[in-house]
Design brief:
CRISPR-associated protein Csb2; 3 domains; Alpha-Beta Plaits; Cas_GSU0054; alpha+beta; single chain; 456 residues; GMP Synthetase, Chain A, domain 3
């Protein structure tokens, strides 16, 4: 196994996706391209040939497991630059630009926004673990090629890249800390990370020839698209929760009151595929809720074992979670999300630990459906908590009206059982782990609670 360590000189990274948004984690295809650039800088033709052969072997291997630092978005605003274009026929309105009269005017029509975003890193190292074995000559040449790489990301991300051999079990021994986490790859049609394929090297070389080659016929070709030349991936935490739970991000957020329709469709897909998934799963809405600036929008779909499932969570392996997540991702490709939604970004709601953390204090983030009498509600909750978790309800504050921006009555669901919608704050005799869904109609997204920050 190879370990490829990237050491940035500064705790920041400014690599961007094609749409101008910050790319994190860095794509395996970007790493492959950096190693290729280093290989072509080698002066010894034999060493260059061996390094490129090693890179081709890497591109035929499975996508790497990543050990990465925690990040925070920098939210750097765009800058503006002159458009790079040459008119077929110069006009009077364009003449001043070609006559270099910028000191007389500053026309905005000739300027374009240039994305400048990035992320701040909790520490300066990233490690990619590639399951491939290289002969000594190729390994030594790859080490030399990596040493030739001056930066990783953009030109203002100076870095050193070091290639070393690693034990097979080194990635499995990594544990999440406050500053680092381990990410594993998952193939996804909705993925936004470019993985490599055996012919990704050919794609890079063809684009290089198109841009820097001397053949006019090739120079005139349009850019060769990434689709078909890379494998689209989504990187997920190797261990982000105590139990089987994962949050699949949405491309755009769903308003709070439109959540039931989306969650109901996804849960229907999970029910229809129970046999192939082997386990009963339940989808819930990961919402931006329960803090001062929350607005209740849904930014992701969480999946967890169905509360009625008679399954030991310890027996659920990552392959079961991968199958369930794949079913949800496939469902999302066929669902038109109600819009217009805001770009999701990287809110804490997309972290599984936000929903699974053990706590004795819980608060509603989606309305809970139950009989419209607070005494019956308390009795039902006491029974459910005692039966499922073996804990007692020690304090309950409930209300029928929303009072926070992230709360809304869900009126789109037509259910004729006479139940009302409630918002709760409750304390338990002992901490329990989530995700916690109580009450009726969980398949529509009702009844989700989250642990109170700072509570034990």
């Amino acid at each position: 196994m190879l370990a490829i360590d990237v050491h940035w000189y500064r705790n920041s990274y400014h690599g961007l996706r094609a749409d101008g948004t910050a790319e994190w984690p860095p794509s395996p295809a970007r790493l492959l391209g950096a190693l290729m650039a280093g290989a072509y800088r080698l002066q010894d033709p034999t060493a260059r040939e061996h390094a490129l052969a090693a890179i081709r072997r890497i591109s035929a291997a499975p996508p790497p497991v990543l050990d990465v630092p925690e990040v925070r978005p920098l939210n750097i605003p765009d800058t503006y630059t002159e458009k790079t274009w040459s008119p077929v026929r110069i006009t009077a309105s364009d003449a001043k630009n070609w006559l270099n009269l910028e000191h007389l005017s500053m026309p905005t029509s000739s300027r374009a926004a240039k994305p400048q975003d990035g992320v701040a890193l909790a520490d300066s190292r990233l490690t990619a673990y590639v399951d491939v074995d290289l002969p000594a000559t190729q390994f030594d040449s790859l080490v030399a090629a990596a040493a030739e790489v001056p930066y990783f990301g953009r030109s203002h991300d100076p870095a050193d890249i070091v290639v070393r051999r690693a034990e097979k079990d080194e990635p499995a021994q990594l544990a999440p800390t406050g500053t680092r986490r381990t990410l594993r790859p998952r193939q996804s049609r909705r993925g936004d990370i470019r993985g490599w394929l055996p012919h990704t090297v050919d794609w890079y070389e063809a684009n290089h020839a198109r841009i820097l080659g001397e053949d006019p016929a090739i120079n005139s070709l349009p850019p060769i698209p990434a689709d078909g030349n890379v494998e689209w991936l989504r990187y997920v935490p190797a261990k982000d929760a105590d139990g089987p739970c994962e949050i699949i991000p949405l491309d755009s957020s769903v308003p709070h009151h439109r959540i039931p329709g989306v969650i109901a469709q996804i849960n229907q897909v999970l029910r229809d595929n129970t046999d192939s998934l082997e386990l009963p799963w339940l989808a819930f809405a990961a919402t931006v809720s329960a803090h001062a600036h929350a607005d209740g929008r849904c930014v992701g779909v969480g999946i967890t074992l169905h509360p009625a499932a008679d399954v030991d969570p310890v027996s659920v392996g990552p392959e079961h979670l991968d199958r369930a997540a794949g079913a949800v991702e496939a469902a999302l490709t066929g669902i038109t999300l109600p819009g217009p939604g805001r770009r999701v970004g990287q809110p804490a709601a997309l972290t599984a630990n936000k929903w699974t953390r053990s706590s004795s204090r819980w608060v509603s983030v989606t309305p809970l459906r139950e009989f419209p009498d607070d005494r019956v509600l308390e009795a039902k909750l006491t029974e459910a908590l005692r039966g499922r978790f073996g804990v007692e309800l020690t304090r309950l504050a409930c209300r029928r009206l929303p009072i926070h921006d992230y709360e809304a009555v869900w009126s789109e669901v037509t259910l004729h059982d006479g139940f009302g919608q409630w918002w709760l704050e409750m304390e338990l005799s002992e901490p329990i782990a989530g995700p916690l869904l109580l009450g009726a109609s969980n398949e529509f997204g009702f009844g989700l609670l989250q642990p109170v920050e700072g509570a034990v």
